[in-house]
Amino acid sequence: MMAMVAPLLAACSDDDLGPTIFPDVSTEPDPSSYTYKFDKWLNNNFRDVYNLEFKYLMEDVEADMEYNLVPATYENARDLALLTRYLWFDSYKELTGVDFLKSYGPRILHLIGSPAYNPQSGSEILGLAEGGLKVTLFKVNEMDMADIDMLNEYYFRTMHHEFSHILHQTKSYPTDFNLLSTGRYDEGSWQSKQPGYVASLGFITPYASSQAREDFAETIANYLTREPEQMDLILWMSKQGWTTGNELADGELEDDDADYFCYYYLEDPANPESKHYFLTSRNQSYGICKVGLVGLGGEYLTTVEEVEEYLEDLRAVRDIYPVEDKDKVDGYEVIKQKQSIARNWFTDQWKISFDDLREIVLRRQNDFDIVKLRKEIDDIQVPSVQ
């Protein structure tokens, strides 16, 4: 059984966004500093355009002293800043112009090199949004520029999640959203849930099952950043029955911390009680930052096509059966309804096409050239120092 660390996105409070929060003093970088070019680029692309301070040098006043944290490296901070503009800010800019994020975006982005672990819940904090003003991102020193799924899992999906909180604190989302999963939120043990099981209950991720506002932010962030093949797999899982194999008389599952399976075969075809369950779900596995299903031989399947081919191959050698769906929830329909509410909210409240935004985000995820982006910083001229 694999040890899993559940990611946590800490939401923000309901403070209003205000005017500039920075003092009226010179912010011109020091030309003699090693970081001059980067600092100048940050000013040109974030502070001067969006009234946003991009903090990559960790400051005690900006960090939670309860955690043992380390600063982000210069190289990773530079690359994350470049991609933050290209994949997040420029995505909105392409659709709405600069004014939208200029008005509603955070005022501080703060980078931390190390993870922040919550020992009480066993979870790992990926992002914090505070008062609609500051977004903090952790684990920056573990970035892998060659793995867009990893970049999404730890950074960009987190950014869209936290920005969704800022937006819905400004203009509330419909209360109908909360009613779709009334009685099924579990703030205390969401981190022990598996993606396939919660999908069958109508949640796009385990964290979405913690509470309604996190569900709304996760619905948005996952729709915007997940490739169609990954979204299709989550929806496939939402249609399955899931069991731990330990069912009580009323059909409830006995152990929330156990693995959930969606298929079984009979060890002894003459004995219906000899069920061997298989095909369990994971948020990531074997270094792959994609939601997937684990087969009998440890196969990690990350698309519906892979799953169906795997099941077809098994059917050629033995009888297999899907687990009966007893939860009385149409998970597929609930997820689709939540996405529809988010889509209409973007249209009605923000005059933004949710689907057009997704198309832009996904395109940019697949076409960025980090070498070309780094050149923007490298090409900045350093004034001579007298």
Helix-strand blueprint:
Layout: E1 6-10, H1 36-50, E2 53-55, H2 74-96, H3 99-104, E3 108-111, E4 116-118, E5 123-130, E6 134-137, H4 148-170, H5 176-179, H6 195-200, H7 212-225, H8 228-238, E7 261-266, E8 275-282, E9 292-294, E10 300-301, H9 304-315, E11 321-322, H10 331-350, H11 354-367, H12 370-378
Parallel strand pairs: 1-5, 2-3, 3-6
Antiparallel strand pairs: 4-5, 5-6, 7-8, 7-11, 8-9, 9-10
Helix pairs in contact: 2-11, 4-7, 7-10
What's this model, at a glance?
By secondary structure, this protein is of the alpha/beta class.
Annotation, overall tally of beta strands: 11
Roughly how much helix do the residues carry, as a percent range?
40-55%
Structural class: alpha/beta
Strand content: 5-15%
Multimer state: single chain
Largest sheet: 6 strands, mixed
Mean pLDDT: 88
Q: Segments where pLDDT lies below 50 for 5+ residues?
A: 1-18
Q: What integer value in Å does the Rg equal?
A: 23 Å
